[in-house]
Amino acid sequence: MNESLKKSIENLYSVFSKYEIRSFIEGCPCCVSDRDKEKIHSKELRELEEEDLSRYAFKAITTWGNVDDFKHFLPRILELCIDQNLGIQPFGIFGKLKYGKWEVWDDTEKEAVTTFLLEWWKYFLENRTFFDDDLFFGIYNVTGEMEKLLDCWKVEIVQNSFMIYVDFIRYYYQDFVNENKQNKNFDESDHEKFLKWIKENSKSLEEGFYYFEKSDERFAREISDALYILEHS
Q1: How far is 219 from 37, CA to CA, in rounded Å?
Q2: Rounded to whole angstroms, how far apart are CA atoms 145 and 26?
């Protein structure tokens, strides 16, 4: 984990530290067992692991506790999400933020969450080789920060970001072209910005093909597939 991501996590803990855990957090008796309730009180916040927190993260606000309770656990929930150590997909947590009306939270809270989400996206670009539509579009739908997401995504053929770009074109581009017609949450101008960014970076595909043609034939074929998709869409 890089230093900027660590710093954003520490800032989350600091900003949300004012929300102390209640001794009793009410939950739907049909959904939340006494054992579930014991787990979230069993350790200090930073020491809670998937088995302690995943059930709460899934049920938070809707059937277990209120928004302030969610804010108490949020730093640890987000921290565990980074490497998928929570047992719940990112879109589930993004949904909790929306359900908890995070857009009307204090500015310092919103800023802390936004900063973390963008740092998480940067970390993903540096350490993964595939496109995660739940993560990218989830962060966009929560923050609306299309330009910042794309600014983070520097497509360079010797970096993971290029592999992620190729993966996006191969598996997600054609659906995205028509995304704005299907998803009312997607701002039309941001849809156009993303399309423009995709086309601007398409020049890297031909360069990447020749770069990997002999050293990685499999990946070169994938790049060729991406080129074909862009040229025939």
Answers
A1: 48
A2: 35
Q: Which amino acid is at 217?
A: E
Residues 64/77, Cβ–Cβ less than 8 Å: no
Look up residue 222 and give its amino acid.
E
Tokens of 144: 């609306």
Place of tokens 């059937």: 63
Tokens standing for residue 200: 């601007």
Cβ-Cβ contacts under 8 Å for 194 (sequence gap 6 or more): 146, 150, 176
Both structure tokens of 154: 């520097």
Tell me: the pLDDT tens digits for 106-165? 999 999 999 999 999 999 999 999 999 999 999 999 999 999 999 999 999 999 999 999
Phi first, then psi: what are they for 24, rounded to 5°? Answer: -135, 125
